[in-house]
Design a protein that fits this description.
Number of strands: 17
Radius of gyration: 20 Å
Number of domains: 2
Structural class: alpha/beta
CATH class of the largest domain: Alpha Beta
Bound molecules: NADP nicotinamide-adenine-dinucleotide phosphate, zinc ion
Shape: globular
Helix content: 10-25%
Distance between the termini: 20 Å
CATH topology of the largest domain: Quinone Oxidoreductase, Chain A, domain 1
Length: 347
């Protein structure tokens, strides 16, 4: 059981700090990866601070992992030593339920095992994520990465990329549709790039005026400052589809009013307290409110291949491991342009 350097939150109120974890030695189907880069998702912060009341301390966050394969078990077929590989939010599932068989492991009937703050199916304990030197994972949950791309900018695809790609695909976003992306952060900026690449008319819905130029640079056709009454009114009953990536408490009803008849708003952002929904807002224009959780393994590989083909990566600010607590504070203020990524050589 090799010791591995990591960064962990020991409680909801303690800053992240160095800590040593034990990783298992690779089993016959396992891949061992030296982590090069790990993206910083707002979910990492939610878990580190127990925003959802389900954190199991110590928490080693991180589920946007890219690294180099350093060892493989005897039965591993898909990877060899030296390959560049990725791990996202999932490290295991039952593989036998209908959802797993369909490649929807994130909705596993027995509960998917998440990369951190999850329980290993063999009872060996809690999972630890990518704020660490290395990770060991069954090959079925490891993804192929096109090594010709800048790896630090690929890492965020493993969560921010797939979390936005999956609902855009599921709700068949494409040419002729008016799409609103709510919140320009890590998820939001990937959603803009992806929805534009799929041919939709894309409007950035943001509460930060200074992000207007960036939204256009990312490809958005329009920018609406949601705190400006006239601008918000200009898109009432307007969108076919809204993807809500906002991490803080906000009024869903306000944004539901921006959907046209039969439009759908999909929540991927997970604000701590759930705001009440007015049924009237749904009934009168036959609107739908839905949710979506990351994506399964086949779709995550499809997304990585799609992004490689279309030259889509994340806009990143690379940080050192020791800067993680400051990065969390900046993320809380919406001051991310547009994803922090930890250079693991600094751990
Ligand atoms: P992020 O980078 O911090 O971006 C969140 C954005 O929300 C901010 O940039 C800001 O955009 C907007 N925002 C913040 N406070 C707001 C407020 N009070 N009112 C309106 N807008 C506000 O976070 P992220 O990493 O993209 O994650 C976003 C959320 O998705 C988190 O809750 C995370 O846990 C969740 N998540 C869900 C899944 C899933 O599978 N469903 C996967 C990953 C993450 P503007 O400045 O443009 O308004
Ligand atoms: Zn995430
Ligand atoms: Zn299953």
């Amino acid at each position: 059981m090799p010791s591995t350097k990591s960064y962990a939150a020991q409680s909801a109120t303690s800053p992240l700090a160095a800590w040593t974890i034990e990783r298992r030695s690779p089993k016959p189907h396992d891949v061992q990866i030296d982590i090069l880069y790990c993206g910083v998702c707002h979910s990492d912060l939610h878990f580190a601070r127990n925003d959802w009341g389900m954190s199991m301390y110590p928490v080693v966050p991180g589920h946007e992992i890219v690294g180099k394969v350093t060892a493989v078990g005897a039965h591993v077929k898909k990877f060899k030593v030296g390959d560049i590989a990725g791990i996202g939010c999932l490290v295991d599932s039952c593989r036998e339920c209908d959802n797993c068989k369909e490649g929807l492991e994130q909705y596993c009937a027995e509960g998917a095992v998440f990369s951190y703050n999850g329980m290993e199916r063999d009872g060996s304990g809690v999972t630890y994520g990518g704020y660490s030197k290395n990770i060991v994972c069954h090959e079925d949950f490891v993804l192929h990465i096109d090594a010709s791309q800048p790896l630090e900018a690929v890492a965020p695809l493993l969560c921010a990329g797939i979390t936005t790609y999956s609902p855009l695909r599921h709700w068949k976003v494409g040419p002729g549709q008016k799409v609103g992306i709510l919140g320009l952060g890590g998820l939001g900026h990937m959603a803009v790039k992806l929805a534009v690449s799929m041919g939709a008319e894309v409007t950035m819905l943001s509460h930060t005026a200074s992000k207007a130029a960036d939204a256009k640079r990312l490809g958005a056709h329009k920018f609406v400052l949601t705190t400006d009454e006239a601008q918000a009114k200009s898109v009432s009953n307007y969108f076919d589809f809204i993807l809500d990536t906002v991490s803080a408490a906000h009024d869903y009803n306000f944004y539901l009013g921006m959907l046209r008849t039969s439009g759908t708003m999909v929540c991927v952002g997970v604000p701590p307290p759930a705001p009440p929904i007015a049924a009237f807002n749904l009934i009168f224009q036959r609107r739908s409110l839905a949710g979506s959780l990351i994506g399964g393994l086949p779709e995550t590989q499809e997304m990585l291949d799609y992004c490689a083909k279309h030259q889509i990566v994340s806009d990143v600010e690379v940080i050192a491991m020791r800067d993680i607590n400051e990065a969390y504070e900046r993320m809380l203020k919406g001051d991310v342009r547009y994803r922090f990524v930890i250079d693991m050589a600094t751990l």
